[in-house]
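User: Good morning. I'm curious how zinc ion would be positioned relative to this chain. Could you predict the structure with it bound?
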Amino acid sequence: MQVRSSTNVPEPVTSRTPLGRADLLASSVIRETRRAGFSLDSVTAVGSIRRFAPDIGDVSLLGIAAAARHGQILKAFARLPVVSEVKAAGSRDITIRTGRGDVTLHLAVPEQAGAALLWHTGSRAHVDLLRLRAQRAGLRFDDGILSRAGEAAVVDCAREEDVYAALDLPFIAPELRSGDDEIDAAERGTLPILLSEEHIRGDLHMHSNWSDGRNSIADMVSAGKQLGYDYLAITDHSERAWSSRKLALTDIQKQRDEIDMLRSRVRGIEILHGVEVDIMADGSLDFDDRVLEGFDIVLASLHDPADQDHLRLTERYLRAIRHPLVNVITHPANRSPAVSPGYNVDFDRLFEAAAQTGTAMEVDGAPGHLDMDGRVARRAVAAGVTVVVDSDCHRVESLSRQMRFGVGTARRGWLGPDHVLNTRSVTDVHAFVARKRARR
Ligand SMILES: [Zn+2]
Ligand SMILES: [Zn+2]
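Assistant: Good morning! Here's the predicted structure, ligand included:
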């Protein structure tokens, strides 16, 4: 049989830092600068962290402060408790080594904050295209500063919007700055309306201590309520899942009783009793239909090592997608950023089947997945697939952080609120499940 296009081959993964770890390092250094009382107007993570890239080359921060304070800030940065060594230092930058990796701090003045933010956020390809555009407009965009060509005077760009406006472009969101077709789209006025965290009304994928989650269902529900969600689904692992702890068949009713008890006690948020059922080697599901019917929503996934060939994996997924009780395929590539590229599956065939059967595909915000990857998600919605964006959270502390990663990853795929099931009401979620079940 003919092998499909090379776009089905996952991108190679290099020895880079996964987004989750890079983001933690950046946030902890930012916290230290605050604790040390740095006289910075602001400090933010830039580079690929700000673009929600799944894996990160360099962890870098941008600090904004008046030029007169730069020398003092750089000195104080070198003395932070976390620093084991200063690797490089200039008049506007410093790179330190910490026990968890290197971090570079760039500095810029407030009048150039937007130009510097854009410059240090990248991607290099996006910035290079803007530089060319600047040249054509008689401007120079260099080293985080926009100026008139041939003149020393700089153009004030306190906000990124000011740089884009000077180049006759609308603002382009960081997640879109890949250097592919976003500038063309900006020029044509066809940039998408992007999904944002405020659009998310519920989270349809999380684990409790009934399987490998750390917290009780009550804890997860109260954390979801604090985030302002209208609903959430508890989706523990099925009996034979590739996970450390699973939900036994004999425990399902007990879990349902606990959820019923919470439903009567907790107001203002609807709890869906879901499951993340493993797809077996032959494409069948770990729980039988009679059991699956009892759940409000069924997520299906593969967790095992990618040791099956392209065709068998694809067929295995297709059987699950066509199953009338499967509503969402979670983390379809089962990849691990900076560690494993995940499965080599025929996404185009999966998307075609998902769109036909009314099955959603997931953008999973767990830093160990970030899957579907933005580009793959973009292909999914182009094929008419409904997407869910979930935290796949295993502890209350990461509920909002992992949803933020999920939304960032979805934005990299140009996804808008209309593409995403969990921007809709819980009634719409129930209807989505009911529609597929009615086709039996
Ligand atoms: Zn999973
Ligand atoms: Zn999960």
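The chain has 15 helices and 16 strands. Residues 205, 207, 276, 392 surround zinc ion (ligand 2) (CB under 6 Å).
Let me know if you'd like a different ligand tried.
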